[in-house]
Amino acid sequence: MNVKGIIRPTLFVPVIITILLAVLTVKNPPVIDEYLETLLVDYRFKIRNIIAPQEVPDNIVTVLIDEKSLKEYGRWPWNRTVQAELIQKVLDGKPRAVAVDIFYPETETPGSDRALADVFQKNRDKLVVALGFEVVEGKGFDGDVGDSIFEQAATRIRNLSLVRAFDAHEVLIPPDPLAGSAAFGHVYALPDRDGKLRWENLYIKYGGEYIYSLALKTAAIADDIPPESIGISGGEGVDFGEKRIPLDAFGRMHINYIGREGSIIHYSAADVLSASLSGDVFQDRVVLIGTSAIATYDLKNTPFSANMPGVEKNATVIANILNNNFMKKSPLYLDLLAVILAGTAAFLVGRGRRGARSILYYCLLIFLILAANQIVFTWYLTRYNLIYPLMTIMATGTFTISYRYFIEEKNARIIRRMFSSYVTERVVNELIAHPEMAKLGGERREITVLFSDIAGFTAFSEKNEPEEVVATLNEFLAAMTEVVFRWEGTLDKFIGDAIVAFWGAPLKQDNHAERAVRCALHMIKRLEELQQKWIAEGKPPLSIGIGLNTGEVLVGNIGAEGKKMDYTVIGDHVNIGARVESLTRKFKTNILMTELPLGKIVNLVNTSRIGHVSIQGVGNVVVKGKEKPIKVYEIRSLYPSAESFIAEAADDAVIHMKDK
Fold first, then answer.
1. The pTM is what?
2. How far is residue 652's CA from residue 659's CA, in Å, rounded to a whole number?
């Protein structure tokens, strides 16, 4: 398994992803900001209103020319004499300020125009009227703005080079006598690319002058802020008396909507004209007069609703200004920091975790990002960029999980192909889950090896038909393999009628010697059952010899790469195990083992955790190339009532074992 191949891409790709998202954070392409980020902002507004419902401002109300008003007073637009009466009745209620969100671009009749102009002129100190501007991208106005517009322009501007605003090319100036009778404020609003209105242009540019919005000028009257105390600070915001209104680079305030249409306290214009309202309903309040009937076509698409009257949008802006409920945009460096932290967390989450656990941790990380962002949005009125940290986590997580999935699937296939014929399905699954335990290259490992061979199999083969020989051999090997797998051994190979198995690899098994001994005893018991079956069938019973040895060997894939590879063990201790098995014929016994596996199980025998066995020394053997003899022991199962014991050899005879 190429461990480096797994580590490297999952190291540098998350770094590249984080860098790319950091660059996008700085560039902030409109296609992402105005389609994705703004959508997430909408959801944050809606979640905020669920977990922390917004208080409806009591100091701001609207008077709406609604369906009821049209039904009782006729279709829109009304005669300006009626409008003058409506505005005057509102003013008679002693409000702090009144905003008239209605355009008057044309002359109606001299009498009606004069009636409306008189109301405007008489209440100019507390009345602001909407002024319509047309904005076309790339098209401005560089002529004389005229006295009526010049009088309305901003007088305090700092850092003019940093001031950016939408440039209007035409204004719908009311005719005389209306033009010089009232204070005006623009109501131009440009929705985002998805059609939703999220921003308030507190000023726009017209012919080199900057005109404040209807909402800003109305809030100034309500808060007793004189015109000279309002100023534009390029790149920072709008100074509003002692406070500063935060704006974006285009002079826009992020509107902190309260909720759906109707969230602001509202009254029907019909009820005002009919005097059915109490006399103090407007006292000390800011009142906005505008239309809400569908036929008047002044409906806005907002994060909460597609049918909010424009006048209610303006009322919301005024509420934000008067009550200091400003949505602030986080500084760029904090957005960058959020992306870097998200990338770092995603990288750390992806290291060393696999499968479902990785997905769970990435989902938890996404939840933490969402929760933290929502908390700051809800209770601190700060809009941190959310799309780029989320994209960082999701891109990193998707790559890491996908890469690991495909790599691990490939390695799982390799492991399954390599080990399915050697070990049990449970061991294969364990190796797939922990591939580091299956080092496919060679390594030195202490194991216990088992060699088993059928005594007299050559003679048996010569005396019986090939079909019968193969059938008997297959039955025997299947039974013995089942026993080896029962004790979670690794089946190395079949050599004719011989079986080679070992314990301690590929999974490390601290009790490998114990498992091998128990497997050998179980094999003899299973053989006895087969012998009874063969005798009953009139077949000659077969007998086997088993040799056990423990020691450090080389274990791994050995063979011709791409042609034939076997997971096997090689080394002196493997050869000793084979030679010990061959001694079973000399000592006429079924199981022999060296002193090395005995040393691993002696305490288990002495404490009866391996019970009902006799371990009898049969002699000492010397392996070619070694000087020190190795003790060899016979192990047999005893009756259940018998106690286990270990006995040394009766003499010190030494047997010299010759390698082939």
1. 0.68
2. 22
